[in-house]
Amino acid sequence: LRRSEELRCAVENGEILLHYQPQKNLKTGKIFGVEALARWRHPTEGMISPCSFIPLAEESGLILELGAKVLELACRQARSWQDAGLPALKVAVNMSARQFQDCGLTTLVSDVLAQSGLSPCCLEIEITESLIMQDVDAAVRSMTQLTELGVTLALDDFGTGYSSLSMLKRFPLSKLKIDRSFIAETPTHPDDNAIVSAIISLARTLDMEVLAEGVETEAQADFLLAAGCEAAQGYLIGHPLPPEMVARLLAPSH
Ligand code: G
Ligand code: G
Ligand code: MN
Ligand code: NA
Q1: Distance, CA of 116 to CA of 168 (rounded, Å)
Q2: Given this model, what pLDDT does residue 135 score?
Q3: CA nearest ligand 1 atom 1, residue
Q4: Which residues form the EAL domain (predicted)?
Q5: What is the pLDDT of residues 2-54, one digit of tens each?
Q6: What pLDDT does 30 receive?
Q7: Whose CA is nearest to atom 8 of ligand 2?
Q8: Residues lining ligand 1, Cβ inside 6 A
Q9: Which of 41, 165, 193, 221 would suit a FRET pair with 117, their CA atoms being 20 to 30 Å apart?
Q10: Cis status, amide bond into 242, omega within 30 of 0
Q11: Does the beta carbon of 234 sit less than 6 angstroms from any atom of ligand 2?
């Protein structure tokens, strides 16, 4: 069986599941969101990382079905946490270029929100710079349609791509996610400190939220707070977790 065929069956058979990485406000200590990260629970090979099957799904075109499945799982899970009485949180879903170029995307998102009963403001869609720079006008159109649904958009891995700063203004983005490669050497490396501080200022100037990825140490968290970035994601706050572990993290008794 070809690997892509195997992946197609995996999507149909429910072998794709999501782990959720918590996002925290460093100032208040509140968990305000989670990023959904796909996993393939292979019957014989165990848990397979998205780094190996997302590219395969993109090449084979299966990313549309896989992406729809991920969206559905994430929205249903977020709604189910709410129904269980847990504090409201936003769920962030990663999107590939192929999904973003699909003219049925807005309808899909709208349908999944309606079917899951999740409020649009509880869904964030993460896109990358390379994705939106492929066709700027088309990206602006798709992004505008999504924001009209009430969904918010975050720019993932910010700083690693090539979008010009003037371009950023054209996109209806709510949030910049600072790539973890810049966070890794803070606060010991002055160049990285300067880059991170500049991104935080840029976000403020453009009236956007900013979140630091890959936060692993207290020293990094302290640096970020001092630099004006309150939102963080990374191993210091939590690893990607199965849904039941997220519920435990969120429960008021925790
Ligand atoms: O946990 P981590 O190894 O979980 O994720 C690796 C990469 O896979 C990340 O860059 C993330 O953006 C990507 N990824 C994870 N889940 C999805 C998904 O559902 N769709 C897409 N397009 N990318 C994903
Ligand atoms: O979409 P994105 O590329 O940002 O996906 C997040 C990826 O980063 C996942 O592979 C996740 O497991 C990984 N990750 C999350 N937090 C940390 C962290 O604190 N340190 C490192 N090195 N990787 C992280
Ligand atoms: Mn992401
Ligand atoms: Na990222």
Answers
A1: 32
A2: 85
A3: 37
A4: 1-254
A5: 999 999 999 999 999 999 999 999 999 999 999 999 999 999 999 999 999 99
A6: 96
A7: 214
A8: 37-38, 49-51, 54, 70, 94-96, 240
A9: 41
A10: no
A11: yes
Tally of CB atoms within 10 A around 165: 9
Q: Contact, 86 vs 251, CB < 8 A?
A: yes
Shortest-distance ligand to the CA of residue 54: 1
DSSP state of 96: -
* Element of type H or E holding 57: helix 50-60
Predicted TM-score (pTM) of this structure: 0.97
- Residue position matching structure tokens 């990825």: 213
Q: Which residues of 169-199 are buried (b: 16+ CB within 10 A; e: fewer)?
A: eebebebbbbbbebbbebbeeeebbebbbeb
Instruction: Calculate how far, in angstroms, residue 214's C-alpha sits from the geometric centre of ligand 4.
Output: 8
Q: For residues 150 and 153, give the distance between their C-alpha atoms in angstroms, rounded to a whole number.
A: 10
DSSP-assigned letter for residue 86: P
Could you tell me which of 245, 251, 212, 249 has the C-alpha nearest to residue 19?
245
Check residue 167 and give its pLDDT. 79
Question: Could you state, in order of their start, the residue ranges of all structural domains in the chain?
Answer: 3-250
If you search the block for the tokens 């720019």, which residue do you land on? 155
- CATH H superfamily, domain 3-250: EAL domain (3.20.20.450)
Our answer on whether the CB atom of 33 is closer than 6 Å to any ligand 2 atom is no
Angstrom distance (rounded) from CA 210 to CA 207: 10
From ligand 1's centre to the CA of 51, what distance in Å? 7
Q: ipTM of this model?
A: 0.97
